[in-house]
Amino acid sequence: MKAVVLEGYGGTEQFALKDMPKPEATLGEVVVRVRANGLCYHDVIARNGHFPRTQIPGIIGHEVAGEIAEVGPGVTNVGVGDRVLVASQAHCGTCRPCRRGQTNLCQKGGGLYGEERPGGYAEYMAAKATTVLKIPDGMSFDEASLIPCAIGTAYHALKSVARLTAAETILITGATGGVGIHAVQIARLLGARVLAVTTNAAKSDYLRDFGADEVIVAPDMKFDQEARRLTDGEGVEAVLNIIGADAVSSALKCLAFGGRHVFVGNLHAEPIQLRPAHVIVKQFSLLGTVIATLAELEEIIRLVDQGRIKAVIDRTMPLEDAVEAHHLMEEGKLQGRIVLHP
Fold it and tell me: 3-state SS of the chain: helix, strand, coil percent to 5?
């Protein structure tokens, strides 16, 4: 099979297009014919070596949709030809988090696809059968590939972690990116008021089209004063911080008393400075999350199928153009996701 292999940590010169052995379905596994793989900034960070579990050499990519090409022994939930998406992380199904339905917290299932397990920058990918979910006939593979991470991360962060309600205001950093533009939609779906932060004024109308009530243009990531002005000095009840360290100072300053700050991304690996007294006095909650549960992914499949959440795709590109795709992502000029087609 054709695959883009990450041969070492560093720049895009570490990618090599190769012919690799097609995976086989072992006990409890399936082989997916990859039709679409969403490109996540996580892939860029993994390529640069900031996720030490990323296998070298290895195949990255964790936003996968396609068709079942082979089923292994013991698999009964899907059959050859079924159209599916693959949850971003494998889970064991038996540990305490899994038994509670918190499959996103499992540490015994084999890890994230594209890190501990080969991912979707390839024509075929092996996956645990418990991590594949069927998709409706009317849903494209491109749309489905965004559900596990780009949409799923935002949905879990807002609904389950931030516990956002209709009476609240949320500020979203990195709002035009793959997670951000879906977070804007989901926050509106939950009934909240949405303040969207972007570094580019030209993207303001785009954000409003997807549901932002207010757009804050902040190339320097200093958005706290404007956020406080827009909330009559009270601040926002929640911040969804997709940028990470570069935005955390303003994010904490614009939080209301008792506010929740949720980290879902960190574009750069630098540590942050934090004053514990600030957290104590204002009674902040500092939270973090990565992916959605299987139950949440099933909910999202229904919402996307009903048109209540729109999967936002900037462009599609052939797998062979993975290097160019990474450059485009690092330049920060995208509106939504790039989807690779093996």
Answer: 30, 25, 40
pLDDT of amino acid 267: 77
> Are 294 and 303 a contacting pair, CB within 8 Å?
no
If we measure between CA atoms, which residue out of 192, 84, 93 comes closest to residue 147? 84
Model pLDDT, residue 268: 74
Give me the DSSP letters along 276-287: HHHHHHHT-EEE
CB burial readout 64-81, b (16+ within 10 A) else e: bbbbbbbbbeebeebeee
Burial 194-219 (b: 16+ CB within 10 A, else e): bbbbbbeeebbebbeebbbbbbbebe
What lies within 8 Å, CB to CB, of 45 at 6+ separation is 51, 266, 267, 269
Beta-bridge partner residues of 66: 34, 84
132: pLDDT strictly greater than 90: yes
What pLDDT, on a 0 to 100 scale, did the predictor assign at position 245? 85
Cβ of 310: how many Cβ atoms within 10 Å?
17
pTM value surpassing 0.90: yes
Say how many C-beta atoms besides its own lie within 10 A of residue 280's C-beta.
Answer: 9
Cis preceding-peptide flag for 318 (omega within 30 of 0): no
Q: Are strands 83-86 and 132-134 parallel, antiparallel or unpaired?
A: antiparallel
